[in-house]
Amino acid sequence: MKKYKILKKKFIRVSNRVLYRIQALRNFGNVKKGDIGGYIGSEKNLAQEGLCWVFDNATVTDNARVEGNAMIRNNACVCNNAVVKGSAIVRNYAEIRDNAKILDCAVIEDDAIIHNHATVKDYARVMGRVFIYDNAIVSGDAIVNGYVLVHDYVHIYGQAEVSGFAELEDNVKIYGNAYISKYVTVKNYAKIYDCAVATGQTRITSYAEVYGNALVADNSVITGNAKIFGNARICDKACICGNAKVYGKAIVCGSSLVKGKSEVYGHAKLFDFVKVCGNARVYGNTQLRFGTVNSNIEKNVNILRKIASSFNIFPRNNKYIFYINVKKVKEGIYRYRRYYDSNAPLELRTGHTVFARKDNDGIPIEVPFFWDLNRNTLLAIEVELKDIISVQSKCIFVKKFEVLEEVTL
Q1: What are the distances in angstroms from CA 287 to CA 209, 255, 293, 358, 389?
Q2: What pLDDT sits at residue 297?
Q3: C-alpha–C-alpha distance, residues 407 and 409, integer Å
Q4: Domain locations in the chain as residue ranges
C-alpha cells in the first residue's frame, strides 16, 4: 500500500518546474494519515517505502531521490540528481544539488549547500553557511560549521571539527579530534589530525602535517613537507617549511623561520626574527631572539666557545664580566633597555643583582657597540655561567646579573 499521494490541485512553480504537495495515506514514523507534506515533482522523488518524508515547504525536484528513513524539512531543497537516504536529515534552508549524496545519519541544516559529487555520511553534521562540493567527503562524527568552504577531494572525518571562515581544498585530510577555526587555509595534500588545533589566519599547505597536540595560530605558515607535532606551538607570523620539524614542547613565534631539514624540539623557544636552516638542531631549553642558526644549539653545549667567538672573553671561576651601554640617571643608578626591546627599561643600581622579569625570557646582554644606542655610560656586570640561558651572535640572554661599577673609557 502506498504511503502518500500527490495533490495535483496544490502546486507551486519553481524555476519553470511544477511541484505538488503530498498527503499521507497511512500512519508511519512521525507522520499521521492525512498529514500534508512538502512538494515533489513526481513519485520518483520520494520513495513509497520506508519512513522517508518531505515536510513543511521543503522541495524535492528533477531526478533527486529521497528514500529509506530520510527527512527533508522546513524550506530545504533537494534537486538535480542528488540522493538523500538512510536516516539523514536535511532541514532549514539547506540545499542538496547536482550529484551530492547525504547518507546514513548525517544532518545538513541552516544555509549549508552540498553539491557536485560531494558526500556527507555516517553521523556527520554540517551547519551554517557551509559550501561542500566537488568530490569532498565529510564522514564519521565530524562537524563543519560557519562559513567554511570544502572542495576538491577533501576528506573530513573522525571527530574533527572545522568552523569559522576556513577553506579546505585539494586532497586535504582532517581527522581524529583535530579542530580548525577562524580564517585557516588548508590545501595541497596537507593533513591535520589527532588533537591538533589550527586557528587564526594560518596557512597549512603542500603535504605539511600538524598532529599530536600541536597548536598553529595567528598568521603562521606551515608548508612543504614540514611537520608540527607533540605539544609544539607555532604562532604570530612564524613560517615552518621544507622538511623542517617542530615538536616536543617547542615554541616558534614572531616572524621566525624554520626551514630545510632543521628541527626545533624539547623546550626550545624561538622569538622575533630567528632563522633556523640547513640541518640545524635547536633543542633543550634554548631561547633565541633574532639571528641565523645553521648548526646545533642546546643550552650549555659549546656555550664557552660561542661566548668566546661573539664577545672575545672567557670565564674565571665560572663567572663572566660583560660591559653594557646604559643611560646614567644619577650616581650609582642607571637604566638599561635593548635597542629593539619594547619593555620598560630596567633600573640598575651599583652593587645590586638584577633579575629577569617573570614575563620575560631573559635579560639580553649585547656587545656594547653592536648597536648605535647613543647611551652615555659603560657599565661592568658579572654573570655566572649557570645563569646564561642562550647564546646568539653578539648577544646572550641571562636569568640575572650583578651590577659592578661604571667604566671610564
Answers
A1: 25, 15, 12, 15, 7
A2: 62
A3: 6
A4: 1-97, 206-299, 308-407
The one-letter amino acid code at 227 reads K
Segment 122-155, tens digit of pLDDT: 999 999 999 999 999 999 999 999 999 999 999 9
Distance from CA of residue 125 to its chain's centroid?
21
Residues 6 or more apart whose Cβ sits within 8 Å of residue 124:
106, 107, 138, 139, 140, 141, 142, 143, 144, 156, 157
Q: Does the pLDDT value for residue 195 go beyond 70? A: yes
Residue with cell 522523488: 45
By the 8 A CB rule, do 284 and 302 touch?
no
Give CA–CA dist 240/222, Å, rounded: 5
Handedness of CA 356, 361, 362, 366 (dihedral sign): negative
pLDDT tens digits, 292-328? 777 666 554 457 767 777 777 778 888 889 888 888 8
Share of the chain above pLDDT 70, in %: 91
Q: Can you name the CATH fold of 206-299?
A: UDP N-Acetylglucosamine Acyltransferase; domain 1 (2.160.10)
Q: Is the pTM of this model over 0.70?
A: yes
